[in-house]
Amino acid sequence: MPANDPRNEPVQHFQRPTGPLIARRGPTGLPGRVPGLRRSRRPLWSVIVFLLLISGVGIRAYRDLSRPEGWAYWKEYYAPSSTMSARSGDLHGQRILSIGGRIGASSASWFRDRLDEIKIPAGSLVLLSSPGGDLNQAMIMGELIRARGLDTAVGILDASDRIIPSYCASACVLAYAGGKARIGIEGSELGVHRFVTTTSGQDPVAETRRTAGAILGYMTKMGVSPAIVEAMSETRDVHWLSTENAVDMHLITARAETLPTIPR
């Protein structure tokens, strides 16, 4: 075999480089692709979508917290001051949810959670006992009651599943009006008065008219006579409606003839 035959040269085994990678150059002199090496790149569109989602959440949070009612809602949600309480029971096979206390800035969410917890079916009774509170929250509670086909009455459910007469005043009457059937219990009272707006930076007269219009529209939707708004506008003090007045206004639509009650 000739001495200069390349087959006489020792065999060189290929080893993976252990130092820094140097891209070999292609025919144009530019760095070429190293065989077996893939570039890890994060798609630009995924980064853009992520930034848009974050910015959207931030904008919504800012809008919520930049409004006084937004602060009031979250403060009430995480540190409730409405003192609302709930108790459920059964009367003659009818499911009852008894709620009481002041209606706060997050009471509608609280109320919806209670309805979901006990899975209260349509035709069940919601007992109310409250001095009133947040106007908008009370109307949302009334909408929830109507949407789920529930009845309303004024009273408290005791430990023996008997109803103690109570009172429902101011904004509470709006929640009561949501009942598909609104039951009048002897000894219980419904109280109304003029709603006063305290929104700063707005014309108080215009805001009061807007509030009265919202209440009128809501009560009409619930089947209550517009006379209820007239009764509200008569005085800033609570006016306790007689049973006859409440029936004439279609606020009470049924009598509690079969519900066991305890006189006060």
Q: What does this molecule look like?
A:
The chain has two domains: 45-75; 83-255, 2-enoyl-CoA Hydratase, Chain A, domain 1 (Alpha-Beta Complex). Helix 1 crosses helix 2 and helix 3 (107-118) packs parallel to helix 4 (135-147). It is α/β, with parallel strands linked by helices. The strands form three sheets. It has a six-stranded mixed sheet with strand order 1-2-3-4-8-11. 36% of the residues lie in helices and 16% in strands. The relative contact order is 0.09. It has helices spanning 44-66, 68-78, 107-118, 135-147, 172-176, 204-221, 227-233, 243-248; strands at residues 85-91, 94-100, 125-129, 151-154, 156-157, 163-164, 167-169, 182-184, 189-192, 239-241, 254-255. The chain has eight helices and eleven strands.
* Strand line-up of the largest beta sheet: 1-2-3-4-8-11
Question: Radius of gyration in whole Å, from Cα?
Answer: 35 Å
Largest sheet features: 6 strands, mixed
Q: Alpha-carbon distance between the termini?
A: 124 Å
SSE-based structural type: alpha/beta
Strand content: 15-25%
Into which percent range does the helicity of residues fall?
25-40%
Looking at the structure, the CATH topology of the largest domain is 2-enoyl-CoA Hydratase, Chain A, domain 1
CATH class of the largest domain: Alpha Beta
Task: Compute the average pLDDT.
Answer: 78
